[in-house]
Write a structure and sequence with these properties.
heterodimer, A: about 300 residues, alpha/beta, TIM Barrel, two-stranded antiparallel sheet, 9 strands, B: about 400 residues, 7-stranded parallel β-sheet, 3-stranded mixed β-sheet, 12 strands, about 15% strand
Chain lengths: ~300, ~400
């Protein structure tokens, strides 16, 4: 039986209370301090949801991140926020990265405001160099060296997941640029690259397992199980919880799938197929619980 | 020749005033809220606004009455700004998605999702066949017919946007998708079933009801239209199913998208007589009428070349910023569009999108600048014609 974990990278949804607090802030009806207090409470609830689900790594839910890029764009020299852009097939938008320099630099890495310490093995999510570079005219390698590497060097985390939402959806996706950029990120925390919201078949065929990272994340609501090559040697972040759907997954179906995956991969982490922020908090909490139940059920079945 | 004129129109939403929000929520009003109602009533000439002020002050204002007052205020605000075709900024609706879903059958709420920054929307799931509880714009339209002096254009959320902004628990298999290569073709087919269900059973009956009440221009809002590049044919099909054979001017509103994606799919959307599209969000703020000066408008030639010669509702106001576009900037955006189109009759002027994320102060100033800039463009073109 494969070694099995479960965790939840990415942005966690905001509670109805935080939604109201931030709306009130925008309308001058509350104070930034009151919103901060609610962010803290949401963060605690996010942590509780992960603990209750029995997840192996703990993430802070990125509750202060407006999207996967903004804090880095605001902190780095040579980067700024561009046009409001739709995020894939969601009704959620992000400010697209825009480069004002050919060599953007992150002088001061993000601190605890955006990367909170956690009581337990910490999971951190950052954008992949390819995603950060997309549309800027700057190469992924330059983004990796100038922006992501300084951030990684300042981090203490069990695993850093680099979210890559675009590459699996590109018609002629090629791994070369990404591989070159990831080379520049070695020597720090363990890294995984998480291909969200897309069919990873082409990437798997191109040998994604050879990328210089510890783990590879695949959306199994878009990718066929048979596309995973036998003997997959990397940690496989298996996207088995569908964050684009409000339907709740059956733990027994997830567990059965994990067992089948175990025939192809030696190390598996059950994860969502994207950020949980695309469902509301009650649904996210329930999906996390089912992720944990599936992990437990799989382990018990193997025992 | 007759002097050239461009039609100006609003897109849809405006912010709800504090006295409406608080009254609806049962919260106590502050003096500043009542002052807001008084000053705006005077500023844009709302007849009888003293009655509203008095009822707000007395603390026993009926929320539905207050919403109708708010509707009157928004109508007068736009008329006062000089906008020629208007709506009430959706003061009588909850929100463009939620309003439609609330009046439908076959949906259940699934909580609040962030759209961006501190903006959110309520998301529902389709859980069964879609149906219409009752035509949900009739009362609003009849009221506005009684209030407005300007012409009316009714915005109604389109079928594709309602579908793609919803979860689909009805057409999506509950099990068996995981690792099965469920794939895009099945996803698209599921979405097609939901979208056409909405078009036939929700949108079309609403359109028929509005036309029966005398509506002459209905704007089908499709901000979600470009969400999936490989579903654009479905967006087009749903528009056609919604409007086919109905006697009215139908337009559609598209915003915050890669507009190149719409081509060539919308070549098949001949029932759409006007596209109002947001461009200012992508444009520079410096003056100038060349292509290099107006990068946000690069794509408009594709709308020009559509085989059925639709009008372009040219978005000239960036609704995501408090920056009030100088009239001269509005003018230059219009002049560039006219230069590309070659036919001024195919240009209308509008904001990029609804202005509900802006304060009334900012929205009003933006609309006034839009109208003034439009007049400047007309003057420039009329002068050029006269001297030619």
């Amino acid at each position: 039986m494969a070694e099995l974990q479960a965790f939840a990278p990415g942005i966690y949804p905001r509670s109805e209370e935080l939604v109201q607090a931030t709306r009130d802030l925008d309308r001058g009806r509350t104070t930034p301090e009151a919103v901060e207090g609610q962010v803290e409470r949401d963060g605690a609830a996010c942590l509780t949801a992960q603990r209750d689900a029995g997840l192996d790594l703990v993430a802070d839910g990125m509750l202060r991140w407006q999207d996967h890029f903004r804090p880095l764009l605001e902190a780095a020299d040579g980067l700024e926020t561009g046009a409001l852009t739709r995020f894939l097939d969601t009704n959620t938008f992000y400010r697209a990265p825009k480069a004002t320099s050919a060599t953007p630099k992150l002088g001061t890495p993000l601190g605890e405001r955006y990367l909170s310490p956690q009581p337990g093995p910490r999971l951190v999510t950052l954008p992949s160099p390819f995603a950060l570079a997309k549309g800027t005219g700057v190469t992924p390698r330059t983004m990796a060296e100038g922006v992501l590497k300084p951030q990684l060097d300042a981090l203490d985390a069990e695993l850093v997941v680099l979210v890559e939402p675009f590459l699996a959806r590109e018609e002629s996706a090629a791994l070369d640029d990404l591989a070159e950029a990831l080379e520049a990120l070695g020597g720090g925390p363990r890294l995984a690259i998480w291909f969200t919201f897309g069919d990873a078949r082409s990437l798997l065929e191109q040998g994604v397992a050879d990328l210089p990272v510890e783990g590879i994340g695949v959306d199994f609501y878009a990718t066929h199980l048979s596309d995973v090559p036998d003997g997959f040697s990397k940690l496989l972040l298996a996207g088995v919880v569908d964050v684009r759907s409000s339907l709740l997954e059956e733990p027994r179906e997830l567990a059965a799938f994990a067992q089948r995956l175990g025939e192809r991969a030696e190390r598996i982490a059950l994860v969502p197929n994207g950020d949980l922020q695309y469902v509301s908090v009650p649904i996210a909490r329930e999906k996390l619980a089912r992720l944990g139940k599936a992990r437990t059920a799989t382990t018990e079945a193997a025992a | 020749m007759t002097d050239l004129r461009f039609l100006t129109h609003e897109i849809g939403s405006l912010a709800k005033p504090p006295w409406l929000v608080k009254t609806s929520q049962g919260r106590e009003l502050e003096e500043s809220d009542i002052e807001h109602a008084r000053t705006w009533g005077e500023k844009v000439g709302v007849e009888g606004h003293e009655e509203l002020v008095e009822s707000l002050r007395s603390g026993d204002a009926d929320p539905d009455d207050v919403a109708r007052w708010s509707s009157r205020y928004c109508v007068r605000m736009q008329e006062s700004a000089g906008v020629e075709v208007i709506w009430d900024g959706e003061q009588l609706r909850s929100e463009m998605y939620a309003w439609a879903i609330e009046h439908s059958t076959g949906f259940e709420p699934r909580g609040t999702i962030r759209s961006f920054d501190n903006k959110y929307y309520s998301k529902s799931a389709a859980v069964g066949p879609v149906g219409l509880r009752e035509p949900f714009h009739n009362e609003e339209f009849s009221f506005l017919q009684s209030v407005a002096r300007a012409d009316l254009k009714i915005p109604i959320t389109g079928a594709y946007t309602l579908a793609i902004w919803s979860y689909d628990e009805h057409h999506t298999p509950k099990e068996g998708r995981l690792g099965a290569g469920y794939g895009r073709s099945q996803e698209i087919e599921a979405r097609r079933e939901l979208t056409l269900d909405i078009a036939r059973n929700l949108i079309r009956p609403n359109l028929e009801a509005l036309i029966g009440l005398g509506a002459t221009w209905i704007q089908i809002d499709e901000p979600g239209a470009s969400t999936e590049a490989d579903e654009l044919d479905l967006f087009v099909e749903s528009f056609n199913v919604s409007v086919e054979g109905l006697d009215c001017m139908f337009s559609t509103h598209l915003c915050f998208s890669d507009y190149d994606l719409f081509f060539p799919a919308i070549e098949g959307m001949g029932g759409c007589r006007q596209y109002c599209v947001g461009f200012a969000n992508y444009d520079r703020r410096e003056l100038g009428t060349s292509g290099a000066d107006r990068p946000g408008y690069e794509v408009i030639s594709k709308f020009r070349d559509l085989p059925y010669d639709p009008i372009l509702g040219l978005g000239v106001l960036d609704i995501h910023t408090d920056f009030v576009e100088p009239p001269e900037l509005v003018r230059d955006r219009i002049l560039y569009a006219v230069d590309v189109f070659g036919d001024p009759a195919r240009i209308h002027v509008c904001p990029d999108c609804g202005l509900r994320t802006r304060s009334w102060d900012v929205a009003y100033e933006k609309l006034r600048a839009m109208v003034e800039g439009t007049r400047l463009a007309e003057e420039a073109l009329n002068r050029a014609h006269a001297s030619a």
